[in-house]
Amino acid sequence: MSLWGATVITNLLSAIPVFGQDLVELIWGGFSVSNATLNRFFSLHYLLPFLLAALAVAHLIALHVHGSNNPNGVNSNGDRYAMHPYFIFKDLVTIFAFFLVLSIIVFFYPNLLGHSDNYIPADPMVTPASIVPEWYLLPYYAILRSIPNKLLGVLAMFGSLLILLVLPFTDLSRIRGAQFRPAMKLAFWFFVVDFIILMWIGSQHPNEPFVSIGQVATGFYFTWFLIIVPLIGISENTLMDIATKKNQLRSN
């Protein structure tokens, strides 16, 4: 499964016009997934955790030097929470709970999240019945498969991650955060359900009705960022202005 997963993921770059196939062969180090490919992938997977750890340290330094926004979503200095000890302790509880669950899986159930086909020796001449990525990649795999065109599917898959960068611009509400926004809370849980549906669709064979369900879920995924979130922000701002004007008229 790992061999064919690497083959499928690297072949996505072949959708790039003109030089896509040359780029794939450059990553492979040859004309197929071989020992050179495994060496490169192993080196990449070994170095990335150190890079991520360095970014996490840089993030903590930025929080310490420049501060962060208010978790309440309001701008009043009197309603702010101190980073220490409140959120330091909260994050430590989460970290220790994560390590507890991780330790249980590693020491007692090491095969819980694995794939049984990974115990079969890799054979480039025998394709598995269903090539399935790891569980945490299933939603993006479902988005990739929901679009028939290869290039558009690859763009949609990468766009499903990059679209997170537009959220600070599409969230037009004056209140940052969802602590006091019931409509936004409801929309968020709709998004969570949609994400779980995409994860389920990614684990199924690309047949009906799974293809149609995946297309609807993919459409909702992008609609949530580009349409639903801005509409909720605009409606909340409008209702806030109406309530403020009514209070001003009553006070006058």
What does this structure look like?
The model has no long low-confidence stretch (mean pLDDT 86). The chain starts with a helix and ends with a helix. It is built from 9 helices and no strands. Helices cover 65% and strands 0% of the residues. The protein has 2 domains: 131 residues, no CATH class; 121 residues, Helix Hairpins (Orthogonal Bundle). Helix 5 runs antiparallel to helix 6. It is an all-alpha fold and 252 residues long.
Radius of gyration: 23 Å
| Number of beta-strand segments | 0
Structural category is mainly alpha
Q: Tell me the helix content.
A: 55-70%
Overall geometry comes to globular
Given as residue ranges, the uncertain stretches (5+ residues, pLDDT < 50) are none
**Total of DSSP H or I helical runs spanning 4+ residues:** 9
Q: In the residues, how many domains can be counted? A: 2
Secondary-structure element series: HHHHHHHHH
Quote the beta fraction. under 5%
In round numbers, the mean pLDDT is 86
The biggest sheet, with number of strands, parallel, antiparallel or mixed sense and barrel status, is:
none
First CA to last CA: what distance?
72 Å
Tags for this entry?
252 residues, mainly alpha, Helix Hairpins, metal ion binding, oxidoreductase activity, transmembrane helix, mitochondrion
